[in-house]
Amino acid sequence: MEKSQQARKDTPGAADKLVKVLRAVFNWAMNQKPALASHNPAIGIEPINKRKGGFHTWTPDEIDRFRAHWAIGTTPRLAMEVMINIGARRSDAARIGPKNEFKREGERWTRFTAYKGRNRFPVEMEARLTPELIDALEKTEVGTDSYVLSARGTPYTIESFGNAFSRWCGEAGLPHCSSHGLRKAASVAYAESGASAPELMALFGWTNFKTAQIYIEKAEKRRMRTNAFERKAAYEKRSSVPLFEPKTANETNEE
User: Fold this and answer.
1) Model confidence over 72-124: pLDDT tens digits?
2) Distance (Å, rounded) from C-alpha 175 to C-alpha 244?
3) N or C: which end of the chain has fewer CB within 10 A?
4) Nearest CA to 133 among 65, 61, 85?
5) Domain map of the chain by residue range?
6) Pairing state of beta strands 107-113 and 101-104?
7) How far apart are CA 85 and CA 90, in angstroms?
8) What's the rounded Cα separation, in Å, for the pair 186 and 196?
9) Contact (CB, 8 A) for 77 and 70
């Protein structure tokens, strides 16, 4: 069972969910009369995705390093620009393409139904194509169905897109970064720019107000820390300036 979990480590949420479901199944089987299982092999298997705070959020420096390694015109760069400029999950970035585009007041927009929760709670997403994304689209070979194409010229599956992006991060010297963390970086950037909770919910397709509030509170804490340091520096600068200019020797003798 642990091998099955590790085989899905590139999708840690799904891997851990598999173990959770099988644990429940074996518990049920052991409680039947007669028992259908003698033990629960899922007990004791540690979750893969157990990091506090979830996936690492990309820093501005890491985004710059990825862009420096993967130039405009490359598939990895296009994939990154799609995710960070649209705020798309990898499950959406693998599917978004020209078919989703429309014009609004002369500008290019995209509209799609988020893949996550599409069956039970479908959420329609809209995003304006930024100059950075348009530049990448115009200088990269794209498909008619999906923007991002594999080396074979076909759209990626969701899983293969995630695997490929992890590999591209590693080649850029960012093995700890992932597609999940890139979406978080976009959320942080919008929150720090002053976006409200309803605006973040509209941008990222969240249905829970608390999710948006988490990013707003983080942004507020960063601003407060920055303001505190700036006030301290200003205070120290004022304190180091003497109230009166020291008198020269001649001025002292004249007195």
Assistant:
1) 999 999 999 999 999 899 999 999 999 999 999 999 999 999 888 888 888 89
2) 57
3) C
4) 85
5) 1-50, 60-184
6) antiparallel
7) 13
8) 14
9) yes
